[in-house]
Every structure is written in structure tokens, then in C-alpha cells.
Please model this.
Amino acid sequence: KLKESVMKNLSLLLVMLFLFVGCVPQSTIIPNTPQNYQAEYNKVWNAAVDSIDELGFTAAQLNKEEGYITTSKEETTQVYGQMTGPELLLLMIPKERVKITIRLTKEGESIRVNVVSFIERFNSQSILPNKWSQVESNGTLEKEIQEKIKAKLIL
Model:
């Protein structure tokens, strides 16, 4: 009976351990976390400009001397199809608008890069005239831009 009780408690402990480990996030992304790069300013600048271009963003403002890049708002859409008799009606519904600001500053021998994204999400159910609302970034886009910059500097 003691052996059975120990096995039952051990099994319960293992189940709780697996549940706890499954709830812990694997990696936390913190939005707007600046990165420092040990490279020349011009190389970091070019890597930042190329990175946003590769991601499909259009630079609206570029000021190399002041160290900032701002993109225009890029809108993503979702396509819905609906049969209306023999014809297919395609609806393009806006989903998100994203604007990115990248700030480069010299800090001693390194260049500090801060990426901030401004995200608005479309809510077609909203009763307000403006159906766009600002949402907080989860940090994924900022991290992707920083990783692209870093990869370009390694080459």
C-alpha cells in the first residue's frame, strides 16, 4: 500500500511539473529593446535602411545626420471570398497598419539602434467612426529588424 501511495504521489508530481513547464514561455521578446553594434555608423545605417526595405516598408523620412528613419504606414489586408450566385465576390478587408521608427545614436565605439513600431488594428465591428485602434507591439517585428541588421553587419 505504501508503494502504491508513493507511486500515485510521484505520478501527480510529474503531471504538475509537465503542466508548469508547458506554461513557461520559451523566450520573451521585449518590444523596443535597443541593441548596440560594434560597427561604423554608415554600415549600421545602410543595414537598417536595407532591412526595412527587405520587409516591404517604404521609408518616408531618412535623416542620416540626426540618425532616424521613419516608414510610411503599411497596411495589410485580408481577402475574403463569397459566392454570389455563379460569381465569386472578393472582399479586401484592412487588417493592420504599421509604421516603424528607427533611431541610431553613437555611444562611444558602438552604434545604438532602437526600433519602435506603431501598430493599428482594424475593427469592423466598432461603432466608432474611426475603426482603427492602436495596439501594443509584441516585439516580433522589432526583433526581426534587429536580427536583419545584425546579419548584414556580420557579412
Remarks:
- The CA atoms of residues 77 and 94 lie 4 Å apart.
- The longest helix spans residues 2-23.
- The chain is about 35% helix and 40% strand.
- The first strand starts at residue 35 and ends at 37.
